[in-house]
Design brief:
single chain; 171 residues; mainly alpha; 72% helix
Length: 171
């Protein structure tokens, strides 16, 4: 998995014109663990020197992440009676209970907070759909969470990597 992330990051380094597209696609699939590593690595290639590219990366991550969550939400709605048969619950059945408890405890905030919690990252959107959380409410929380995550994780990665590259004379 780490090798795949390294290949994606390497491709982005060789083809910077594709960074925003890669960030969108990676953010859409960020619930898969290794994808998150690639997403942060690709975003780090932008650096702080080009604010318009950084804004495009944040926008791409926000839209991709929200659409990925909404897709999981729709899968949850469609499969609400048999979540144990679909990934990731088939391999990790305790994730259903953990995600349900997380949603019960945090309510709407679970959609935002869940994005920052590895163990329930993929489960919260699916369970929210299965529990029939209102779609508009879920979507708004998903966009907010995706934007917050993009700013919290990707902006520091880009700024930090850019600064490090400058200090090392690599930029």
């Amino acid at each position: 998995m780490d090798q795949m992330a390294a290949q994606v990051i390497g491709f982005a380094g060789d083809h910077p014109q594709w960074i925003a597209v890669l960030v969108f696609v990676l953010a859409f699939f960020e619930f898969i663990p290794f994808v998150w590593v690639a997403l942060v690595g690709v975003a780090a290639l932008v650096g702080p020197q080009n604010v318009s590219h950084l804004l495009a990366v944040v926008a791409a991550a926000t839209i991709g992440g929200a659409l990925g969550d909404i897709s999981l939400y729709l899968i949850g709605q469609k499969n609400s009676g048999h979540l144990g048969r679909i990934w990731p619950f088939r391999k990790h059945p305790s994730l259903i209970e953990k995600s349900e408890a997380f949603c019960a405890r945090w309510g709407l905030g679970a959609v935002v907070i869940g994005r920052f919690s590895g163990p329930v990252r993929a489960g919260v959107p699916v369970v929210a759909g299965a529990l029939r959380m209102p779609a508009v409410t879920f979507s708004a929380a998903s966009v907010a969470g995706a934007l917050i995550a993009a700013v919290v994780f990707l902006v520091p990665a880009a700024v930090g990597a850019g600064t490090l590259f400058e200090m090392l004379g690599l930029s």
